[in-house]
Amino acid sequence: MPTFTLRVNGRSRTVDVESDVRVLWVLRDILGITGPKYGCGIGVCKACTSHINGRAFNPCSVRIGDITSTDEITTIEGLPATVGAELHPMQEAWLDADVSQCGYCQPGQIMAAVAAVAEVRARGTEISDDELDELRNVCRCGTYFRIREAIRDGAARMADQG
Ligand code: FES
Ligand code: FES
Known about the structure:
Blueprint: E1 3-8, E2 11-16, H1 23-30, E3 50-52, E4 55-57, E5 72-74, H2 89-96, H3 106-122, H4 129-134, H5 144-161
Parallel strand pairs: 1-5
Antiparallel strand pairs: 1-2, 3-4, 3-5
Helix pairs in contact: 2-5, 3-5
The site of one FE2/S2 (inorganic) cluster has 12 residues, from loops.
């Protein structure tokens, strides 16, 4: 089998796997990084949402063969290190809003929220209601109201951090 080298949460990792294996299975089953959750496997539920080069992506829908050794993949496990803290400000906002119910969708929700807020901040704007509506991460427990509150609070905390 071919080998692939990828960077995950600041570390370079080499895996021996077929090129069409999806990144989610590389992360979860080979590297033991289980924060990204498996829900649908076809890019719909967004439970696996992580970051690639700072942007949200769904590793269930990307082949390992399409990842380059310079791509920076970040999962929920590596999110705090991106701000050099024990928790990312979005995670702190999440805890304060007591968002989580069963918790299954929550890593993907937080990763999607951080990427969306970072994107609008890069444009010099704040996240709007329409942009919040565009976040399509499914929550079977229906925590959507608290998610929106937490994203707004998390965005303010991210702005405070500069
Ligand atoms: S498991 Fe990746 S989008 Fe559903
Ligand atoms: S908290 Fe249970 S699926 Fe979202």
